[in-house]
Amino acid sequence: MTARPAATAPRGRPRDADRAARRDALLEAAMRQFLTHGYAATTIEEVAAQARVAKRTIYTTIGDKTDLFVAVVRRLGDRVVNAAAPDAGDPVADLHAFGVRLIRLMLSDEAIGLHRLVTGEAAKFPHLAARHYANGPRRYIVVLAQLLAALPPERLLGRPDDLDDLAEQLFTLLMGEAHRRRMFGLDPAPSDAAADAHVARTLRLVLTGPG
């Protein structure tokens, strides 16, 4: 009886999954190093050691230390941005759902820690602050503008002809004192219910009719 050849997994998929998992583990290790030691004291060598990869792997797949920090910021943001595509349904519900995810992210221990780090290092590393803003807050404002654009103009209390400005104002309102209090360590990260209620209150300031 002729033995059947062993089944093989489709080419590419396991390798892609493994590569993604290794990158995720690397960025997790980098984030912990940044949060523990700060930006200036974190080294590529130590991140590589913690992630159990070669230094060259970091340089060839991500870049230098600033690139690594930006990749950490974008990895956090992917939690909300990659899930932000509008559903076939109510655009107000889509905006509300994104707002809740955004609040849960921005007020998380990790995001607050990175924000404190950048605030403390901004004078010494202005390029770091600029790239953090572009890949963090600015990225979320763009998504908010897209979600606002999906709403009927009559639902907007602000200027429907300047959605980017309205999105900036909405982002500021969503962060508000809740973000400041988290930055000062006065409040814990909000629960899902608290984030939901905060977003509902905030949207009533920019939308007409029921939220």
UniProtKB/TrEMBL annotation:
Residues 43-62 bind DNA. One of its GO terms (molecular function) is DNA-binding transcription factor activity. Pfam families: TetR_C_7, TetR_N. SUPFAM superfamilies: Homeodomain-like, Tetracyclin repressor-like, C-terminal domain. InterPro entries: Homeodomain-like_sf, HTH-type_TetR-like_transc_reg, HTH_TetR, Tet_transcr_reg_TetR-rel_C_sf, TetR_C_Proteobacteria. Residues 20-80 form the HTH tetR-type domain. Keywords: DNA-binding. This is TetR/AcrR family transcriptional regulator. It comes from Jiangella asiatica. The lineage of its organism: Bacteria, Bacillati, Actinomycetota, Actinomycetes, Jiangellales.
